[in-house]
Amino acid sequence: MKNIGMVISNENRTYSCIANTQETIMKTQEEIKKEIEALKAVRPKVCPRSIFGDDNLASLDAQVKVLENDMDDDDIYDMYDHAGGSEYVLEAALYARQWIDDEVYPDDSGLADDCPLEQREE
Fold first, then answer.
1. Does 121 score more than 60 pLDDT?
2. What distance in Å separates the CA atoms of residue 39 and residue 44, rounded to the nearest whole number?
């Protein structure tokens, strides 16, 4: 929240007004484009399933779709919240929306940084 103040004066009186406003901060188109590229680049290295059997690749694909199409919460629920749908994929898509809206990642890391990568033996 940000306080915005204003003082108005006339000959005899001074009025002041303070209003609280919600500042909207979102990722730029350039940041979104870079994150889409990062997600696509990391996809081949992502472990296909979580230890619980959830589909990591479908979750990553959902995040890319949200970023590419600037989907809002309603669009996301319409696409991913249905019978037989995965709550894991839905949550990943909603998380991508939160990332766009700058509601996550206070350290400015990206979605691709959280992708579970396969452990490869060298």
1. no
2. 10
